[in-house]
Design brief:
The structure holds 2 protein chains of 2 kinds.
Chain A: H1 2-14, H2 17-35, H3 41-48, H4 57-82, H5 91-102, H6 106-140, H7 144-161, H8 166-180, E1 183-184, E2 191-192, H9 206-224, H10 227-231, H11 247-269, H12 275-289, H13 301-317, H14 319-325, H15 331-342, H16 350-354, H17 356-388, H18 392-411, H19 414-432, H20 438-460, H21 467-470, H22 472-489, H23 491-500
Antiparallel strand pairs in A: 1-2
Chain B: H1 6-26, H2 41-63, H3 75-109, H4 117-138
Helix pairs in contact in B: 1-2, 3-4
Chain lengths: 501, 151
C-alpha cells in the first residue's frame, strides 16, 4: 500500500501545470538534441543547469531528466532514418533499424521503437518505485567500507562492460581516478597534480573533461572520416506515412520488447551500466533466442524492438543508484547530483525521506514524460527528418561553439576552455589507441569519493584492510565485483564478449 | 624483433609513461601509513598499478600475432580544432561571445580543405548570432557579448 500512496504523491506533484510544462520542455529539447548527432543529453544538461537555478528543485530535476530520456527517443529517430546514432546508445538501433528503413518500413521501425520505449519506460518507472525504497534503506546502513566496495563494483562493472581489452579498460579507470585527484586534497590541504596553477586547486570540473573526451574528441574523429561517407547516408522519407504494424510484426516484436525492458531495467541499476550496455545485451539475447538469427542485421524487427526498449529502461533505472546511494553511474547522473547540490539537497538515501515530493514527483514525471513522447513525437517526426538533412560540415562548428560556451558558463573560467581542448586531444589519442572512454569518466567521477571512503574505512579499522572483508555487506559487494571480473577473464566468455562488441 | 600489434604496443608504452610521470609527481607528496593515509598514498598506489597494467599491455602486444598498425593521427583536424578552442578560451573575456564564436567557426572550418569561403563566413555569422540570442539573451548566461572596446 505504501507504494501506491507514494505513487499518488508522485503524480500529484508531477501533474501540476508547471511541472507538466517543464517536463514537456525537457522531453522536447531532449528529443531535439537526441536527433542531432554530435550534441547529446550531457552537453545540453550541462548548458541548461545554470538556467535552472531559479526553479524549484523538483521542477528543475523533472526537466533535466526529461532531456535525458527524451534524448534516447530522439536518438532512435536518427539511427533509423539516417544510419547515424544521435547518442552512443543508438549504435545498436542502427543495425536493424536502418535496414528496416531501407526496406521502406521506416514508419514501422519508428512506431515499434516508440511503443517499445514507452512500455520500457512504464516498466522502469515501476521498477524504480519498487526497488528504490528498500535500496535506500539498505544504503542507510552503509559505512565508508561499504561505499568503497560499492565503488569497486561500479568500476569493475564499467571495465567489464567496456569494449575490447579488460586490461586497457582497467587502465582507463585508473587514469580517470588519477585525474579525479587533481586539486586540493580534502583531508590534508595538499595541492596535488595542480602544477601551481591556482585555477586547478578546486579540481577539474567534470563537465570540462566529459565535453573534451566525448564531444571534442568525437568531432576530431568525425572530421577524419571522408566527407562522402557521411553524406551517402541518404534520408529515406519513404514509408513514413504508415502508422500501423502488421500482425506478424507485432507478434515478433512484443516478446522482444518485454525481454528488452527487463534486461534494461536490471542492467541500468548496476553502477557503470546504463543505456548503451542494455541495448548491447538485449540485442545479443534476441539473436540467441531467435530461430532465424541470420535475419539480424537485415532488418529484423526483434533486433530493433528489444534494444530500443532496453536502452530506454536502462537510461531510466540508472537513476536508482543516484537517487538512493548518491552515486552517479554515468556522466549525466553526475550532472543530476550537481543539480541537487545547487539546491542544497545532499544526494543519498536520505533524499527519499527528507524530500519525498521531489523523489516521487521525479519518478512519476518520468512516466508522464514517456507518455508525452509517444503522443507528441510521432506527429513531429517530419520536423526531425528535416533537421537530419543538415550537413555535418555545417553542424560541427556549431557543436564546437556550444561546447566552448558550455564549459565557460559552467565554470566562468576562460582557462578551462583550453583545458577542454587538452582533453579533446587526449580523448582522440585514446580513441585512436582503442581505449574505451566510459571507464575513464566513471573513474574520474568516483575518484575523490573513492579515496575519501578508502581513507575513512582504513582509519576506522586502524589501518587493517580486513575491514572490507569482515563486514558482510562490503564483502558481498567485493565478491560480486570479483566474480564479475573472473567471469570475463574466462576465455570462452571473453571470446563471445569480443564477438558481441 | 618485429612487433605485429603496434597499436597495443604503443598503448602500453603510453600507459607506462603516464604511470611513471604521475609516480614521479606523487612521490613528492607525503605517503603516510595505511592507518593515516597521506596525500601521496592513493596516487602512488594507482601509478604503480598503471605501470603494471601498461607492462601487461605491452607484453600481450608482443605475444599477439594480430597485425595492427600504429594509428595515424589526423593532424589537421586535431591541431585546428584544438587551436580554435584555445583561441576561444584565451580571448573570450576581451573579445566577447560574438567575435569569438565567429573566429571559432572560421578556424575550425580549416580542419578540412575545400569548404567554400562564403559558406564559412555565412555559417560563422549565423552561429554567432544564434549563440548570442540563445545564450546571452534567452538563457542569460554570464558571458561578455561584445569586445571590451565596444562596451
Amino acid at each position: 500500500m505504501d507504494l501506491f500512496q507514494n505513487l499518488v504523491l508522485g503524480f500529484s506533484v508531477a501533474l501540476t501545470l508547471k511541472n507538466i510544462v517543464y517536463c514537456f520542455a525537457g522531453t522536447l529539447i531532449g528529443t531535439l538534441v537526441g536527433v542531432l548527432p554530435g550534441i547529446g543529453a550531457f552537453t545540453t544538461i550541462a548548458l541548461l543547469l545554470p538556467a535552472t537555478y531559479g526553479l524549484e528543485p523538483t521542477t528543475a530535476l523533472i526537466m533535466l531528466a526529461g532531456i535525458f530520456y527524451g534524448a534516447q527517443y530522439g536518438c532512435s529517430t536518427s539511427s533509423i532514418l539516417i544510419n547515424i546514432p544521435g547518442e552512443a546508445s543508438g549504435v545498436i538501433t542502427v543495425l536493424d533499424g536502418y535496414q528496416m528503413a531501407r526496406q521502406g518500413k521506416a514508419g514501422e521501425a519508428l512506431l515499434v521503437s516508440a511503443l517499445g520505449s514507452f512500455f520500457a519506460g512504464t516498466l522502469a518507472t515501476m521498477v524504480i518505485a519498487a526497488f528504490a525504497p528498500p535500496l535506500a534503506n539498505l544504503a542507510l546502513k552503509f559505512g565508508p567500507s561499504e561505499y568503497f566496495s560499492l565503488m569497486v563494483l561500479g568500476l569493475v562493472g564499467a571495465i567489464v562492460l567496456a569494449r575490447g581489452s579488460v586490461v586497457k579498460a582497467m587502465s582507463m579507470a585508473i587514469i580517470g581516478l588519477l585525474f579525479g585527484l587533481v586539486g586540493t586534497d580534502v583531508s590534508t590541504g595538499t595541492q596535488r597534480f595542480a602544477f601551481g596553477i591556482v585555477l586547478l586547486y578546486d579540481g577539474i570540473d567534470f563537465t570540462v573533461i566529459a565535453m573534451g573526451v566525448l564531444g571534442i574528441a568525437e568531432i576530431i574523429a568525425n572530421l577524419e572520416e571522408a566527407e562522402e561517407k557521411r553524406q551517402s547516408y541518404a534520408v529515406s522519407g519513404k514509408g513514413l506515412g504508415i502508422w500501423h504494424l502488421s500482425r506478424e510484426d507485432f507478434r515478433r516484436a512484443w516478446p522482444a520488447v518485454v525481454r528488452g525492458s527487463f534486461i534494461g531495467s536490471a542492467l541500468g541499476i548496476l553502477p557503470g551500466g546504463g543505456a548503451l550496455i542494455s541495448s548491447f545485451a538485449s540485442y545479443t539475447v534476441e539473436k540467441k533466442l531467435s530461430k532465424e538469427p541470420e535475419r539480424f542485421g537485415k532488418g529484423a524487427i526483434e533486433g530493433l524492438a528489444g534494444p530500443e526498449s532496453a536502452n530506454n529502461a536502462g537510461a531510466q533505472t540508472s537513476f536508482i543508484p543516484m537517487l538512493t546511494l548518491g552515486l552517479p553511474s554515468n556522466v549525466v547522473m553526475a550532472l543530476m547530483i550537481g543539480a541537487l547540490m545547487i539546491h542544497n539537497i545532499q544526494p543519498g538515501p536520505q533524499v527519499m525521506t527528507n524530500n519525498p515530493d521531489l523523489f516521487w514527483g521525479l519518478i512519476a514525471s518520468m512516466w508522464v514524460g514517456n507518455l508525452m513522447l509517444v503522443v507528441l513525437n510521432l506527429p513531429l517526426i517530419g520536423i526531425w527528418v528535416k533537421l537530419l538533412t543538415v550537413k555535418y560540415r555545417l553542424l560541427f562548428p556549431a557543436i564546437l561553439a556550444i561546447c566552448c560556451i558550455g564549459v565557460y558558463t559552467v565554470s566562468n573560467q576562460s582557462f578551462l576552455v583550453s583545458v577542454m581542448a587538452f582533453f579533446g586531444a587526449l580523448g582522440y589519442l585514446f580513441v585512436k589507441l582503442n581505449f574505451e572512454l566510459a571507464p575513464l569518466l566513471l573513474g574520474f567521477i568516483l575518484g575523490p569519493m573513492f579515496e575519501e571512503n578508502l581513507r575513512r574505512a582504513m582509519t576506522i579499522s586502524h589501518g587493517s584492510p580486513a575491514v572490507f572483508f569482515t563486514r558482510p555487506l562490503s564483502l558481498t559487494l567485493l565478491i560480486a565485483a570479483f566474480l564479475l571480473l573472473v567471469i570475463t577473464m574466462v576465455p570462452a566468455i571473453n571470446k563471445s564478449r569480443e564477438k558481441i562488441f | 624483433m618485429r612487433i605485429s600489434n603496434k597499436r597495443d604496443f604503443l598503448a602500453g608504452l603510453m600507459l607506462v609513461c603516464f604511470g611513471v610521470a604521475t609516480l614521479l609527481i606523487a612521490s613528492n607528496y607525503r605517503m603516510g601509513t595505511a592507518f593515516r593515509m597521506g596525500p601521496g598514498y592513493f596516487p602512488i598506489v594507482l601509478s604503480i598499478l598503471l605501470i603494471v597494467l601498461g607492462i601487461i599491455t605491452v607484453g600481450i602486444s608482443l605475444k599477439s600475432s594480430e597485425e595492427l598498425a600504429s594509428p595515424s593521427l589526423a593532424w589537421r583536424p586535431l591541431l585546428l580544432v584544438s587551436a580554435a578552442i584555445v583561441l576561444f578560451g584565451l580571448f573570450i573575456n576581451d573579445a566577447g561571445l560574438a567575435v569569438m564564436t565567429l573566429a571559432l567557426v572560421i578556424v575550425s572550418r580549416f580542419s578540412r580543405s575545400g569548404y567554400p569561403w562564403l559558406e564559412t563566413v555565412v555559417l560563422g555569422a549565423a552561429v554567432s548570432a544564434a549563440c548570442a540570442v540563445v545564450f546571452y539573451y534567452i538563457l542569460n548566461v554570464q558571458i561578455p557579448l561584445l569586445p571590451v572596446w565596444w562596451r
